[in-house]
Amino acid sequence: MTDAVSKRSVAFSAAQPTGHLTIGNLFGAINNWIPLQEHHDTLFCVVDLHALTVRQDPQELRKNTLELAAIYMAAGIDPEKSIVFIQSQVPQHSQLAWILSTFAQLGELERMTQFKDKSLRHRGNVNAGLFTYPVLMAADILLYKTNIVPVGEDQKQHLELTRDIAIRFNNIHGPVFTIPEPAIQSHGAARVRDLQNPEKKMSKSAESDLAKVMMLDDANTVLKKFKKAVTDSLGEIRFDETNQAGVTNLLSIWCAATGSNRETALAHFSHNQYGKLKVETAEAVNAVLEPIRQKYQMIMNDPTKLERILTHGAQQASAMAAIIMTQIHDVLGLPPLPGAYNRG
Question: What's the pTM?
Answer without folding.
Answer: 0.87
